[in-house]
Write a structure and sequence with these properties.
By secondary structure, the chain is of the alpha/beta class. It has 13 helices and 15 strands. The strands form 3 sheets. The chain has a 7-stranded mixed beta sheet. It comes from Candidatus Seongchinamella marina.
């Protein structure tokens, strides 16, 4: 998607920056040339203040300074005087290896090779970055280690995409919410690489957790309750036991890894909190006690309050399994009511969309729901920037426009504090000082169109 005239009168120095970006094949390596961005307004992700006329300087991939623009500042290489600049956004719950339409028939997984799935993840990674989400927490997948492989491709410069925090694979009971169970298909016909996290009993989960850590997992995901998009399980009922979750937490925390629990039902949420997890995914049916426990134990909720609308509309048109549709109806409005109560109670709420259930690239559509259901716009922005970064343990590198952090910046024309829906379509994306949007092809000669990753 190309923005009209690349949005703004970019100078020849921007052309050079784009050219350098393309010649390096979007690699994580950075050039020594400084990128100066003149922001009309700036939200830094950390405080309530909106600063005007700021120059952000990025060199060797990191922000080296932010200072008021003045007549003596010199010409910026990226003129965003009519735009609001924000930190690169963070989605704490994505599945890059999934398409929403996979829900129509899970037998699609038996037709895909691991190479097919890795290609899907790479394409969705590019789309996610171009949507302004420069960092994500990839929170599990059926195919083991697809997130690790995707991250390696991005960091080596073979592909473009966000910074990825890796989970490796789900930890789940047999036929649980993280096990690939397909009606009419025998377990023996499902490849082992889809079921690497299936276990039972505390000791087995200790071993699986250590396997994840040894393989490079940076966060551990347990499936504590039934899943909306899983056959057989009930969202109201626990799956892993409290003792099994505690075994995972003990190994993970000893290795400095955080644990997040997929949990819809109130009982499973409370079991996971008592077991020591760091965050809850979905939290759709949390009761007042579960919310109070989350506040007291400083457990964050990552609540995907948008995608129920997408599932209700598109799933009905395409005849998705009735079981999935019923559980989606059971959780969508209930989750939004829990969200309202959690905001009032002071639960730390992270921006997490479950992208893959809804389309990648539409990650920003959730902001509107969060604001409609009780957050102010700045709270919603911080949930997708500094708060998410702190919870991921990456607060020294991402989540704010601040000297020393990566030069990850997005911009929109207008004021997202007055119209949060502006964040559904990002105009400018910079990752590590590299300009991702507007695309260089609008500025440079024809060979730009053929550049890798475009």
């Amino acid at each position: 998607m190309q923005k009209t005239a690349c949005l703004i009168g970019l100078f020849s120095t921007l052309m050079l920056a784009c050219s350098n970006e393309l010649r390096s094949n979007e690699s994580a390596n950075t050039t020594e040339e400084a990128l100066l961005i003149h922001c009309g307004s700036l939200i830094n992700g950390l405080d309530e203040q909106v600063r005007t006329r700021q120059i952000v300087t990025i060199k060797s991939g990191r922000i080296t300074g932010i200072e008021p623009a003045s007549d003596t500042t010199g010409t910026a290489t990226l003129d965003l005087q009519e735009y609001t600049c924000l930190p690169g956004m963070i989605d704490t719950h994505v599945h890059l290896d999934m398409y929403p339409e996979d829900a129509e028939d899970y037998r699609i997984y038996l037709k895909r090779t691991p190479e097919d799935t890795r290609a899907i993840a790479l394409d969705n990674a590019r789309i996610t970055l171009e949507a302004g989400f420069t960092s994500v927490r990839h929170i599990g997948s059926y195919l083991a280690w697809v997130d690790r492989d995707t991250k390696a491709s991005i960091e080596s410069g073979q592909a473009i995409g966000p910074r990825i925090q890796v989970a490796g694979f789900y930890l789940t009971i047999p036929h649980g919410g993280g096990d690939l169970t397909i009606p009419g298909v025998d377990d023996d016909d499902i490849p082992d690489y889809y079921r690497m996290g299936v276990a039972r009993g505390p000791e087995a989960y200790r071993e699986k957790t250590q396997e994840l850590i040894d393989g490079g997992a940076e966060v551990i995901k347990v499936i504590a309750s039934g899943a909306v998009f899983g056959f057989g399980g009930k969202v109201t009922e626990p799956e892993m036991s409290e003792e099994e979750i505690r075994a995972v937490v003990e190994i993970a925390h000893a290795a400095g890894r955080r644990v997040t629990a997929h949990a819809h039902g109130a009982r499973s949420i409370k079991q996971a909190i008592r077991a020591g997890v760091d965050s809850i995914e979905h939290a759709s049916l949390a009761d007042p006690e579960a919310i109070a426990m989350a506040v007291q134990e400083q457990v964050a909720f990552s609540m995907d309050v948008y995608n129920g609308d997408y599932t209700a509309e598109v799933g009905a048109i395409n005849n998705w399994p009735q079981e999935f549709m019923e559980k989606n109806e059971q959780t969508t409005e209930a989750q939004r009511l829990v969200f309202e109560k959690a905001v009032i109670a002071g639960v730390s709420i992270l921006y997490g969309t479950d992208a893959g259930v809804a389309p990648h690239g539409g990650n920003g559509r959730q902001f509107r729901i969060m604001v409609e259901r009780g957050m102010n716009a700045m709270q919603a922005i911080q949930s997708a920037t500094s708060l998410a970064a702190v919870h991921m343990g990456w607060q020294d590198d991402i989540g704010a426009l601040e000297a020393g952090r990566y030069g990850d910046l997005v911009a929109v024309k207008g004021n997202p504090l007055k119209d949060i829906t502006l964040l559904e379509s990002i105009d400018v994306v910079v990752k590590g000082g590299k300009i991702i949007l507007p695309k260089c092809a609008a500025l440079l000669p024809q060979e730009c169109l053929a550049a890798p990753g475009r």
